[in-house]
């Protein structure tokens, strides 16, 4: 076999080996592009992990919002309960004073006391009917806290 003048056989061998390596890389790249099953698995895995992250973030956000709303409703219901309690105390005091005054003046404490109690009951009932939202909020807040406490206890038992 004759070689052209000025060519090195070792250089030619290296060029051939380099060409073969490049050709092998090209074939591997084409095979990877035609492997639809693995490409689909990779995309599905990526989409699933992104979805998990979104769900986790939404869950954290929902828990935070629920906690804030529970605190707000609890505070509002507590304020309303204090107001109702003051009204009830004032009414009770008025009933007692009325009963004492009725006993001292007419001797008919029983009927005066019943009348005063009915009036107090009517005032408290109308106060609640006029603004039922705070009472409902207090009930909802109490229910939320009960559910949260139940879940915490249940999780502790499972651990």
From TrEMBL:
<feature type="region of interest" description="Disordered">
    <location>
        <begin position="41"/>
        <end position="114"/>
    </location>
</feature>
<keyword id="KW-1133">Transmembrane helix</keyword>
<feature type="transmembrane region" description="Helical">
    <location>
        <begin position="133"/>
        <end position="150"/>
    </location>
</feature>
<dbReference type="Pfam" id="PF12277">
    <property type="entry name" value="DUF3618"/>
</dbReference>
<keyword id="KW-0472">Membrane</keyword>
<feature type="compositionally biased region" description="Polar residues">
    <location>
        <begin position="54"/>
        <end position="81"/>
    </location>
</feature>
<dbReference type="InterPro" id="IPR022062">
    <property type="entry name" value="DUF3618"/>
</dbReference>
<feature type="region of interest" description="Disordered">
    <location>
        <begin position="1"/>
        <end position="21"/>
    </location>
</feature>
<protein>
    <recommendedName>
        <fullName>DUF3618 domain-containing protein</fullName>
    </recommendedName>
</protein>
<feature type="compositionally biased region" description="Polar residues">
    <location>
        <begin position="89"/>
        <end position="114"/>
    </location>
</feature>
<keyword id="KW-0812">Transmembrane</keyword>
């Amino acid at each position: 076999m004759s070689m052209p003048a000025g060519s090195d056989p070792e250089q030619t061998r290296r060029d051939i080996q380099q060409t073969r390596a490049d050709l092998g890389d090209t074939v591997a790249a084409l095979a990877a592009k035609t492997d639809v099953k693995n490409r689909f698995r990779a995309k599905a895995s990526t989409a699933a992990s992104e979805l998990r992250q979104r769900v986790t973030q939404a869950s954290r956000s929902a828990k935070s919002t629920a906690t804030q709303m529970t605190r707000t409703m609890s505070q509002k219901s507590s304020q309303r309960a204090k107001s109702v309690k003051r009204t009830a105390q004032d009414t009770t005091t008025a009933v007692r004073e009325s009963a004492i005054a009725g006993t001292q003046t007419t001797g008919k404490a029983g009927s005066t006391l019943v009348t005063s109690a009915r009036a107090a009951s009517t005032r408290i009932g109308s106060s609640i009917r006029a603004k039922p939202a705070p009472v409902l909020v207090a009930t909802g807040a109490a229910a939320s806290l009960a559910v949260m406490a139940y879940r915490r206890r249940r999780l502790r038992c499972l651990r």
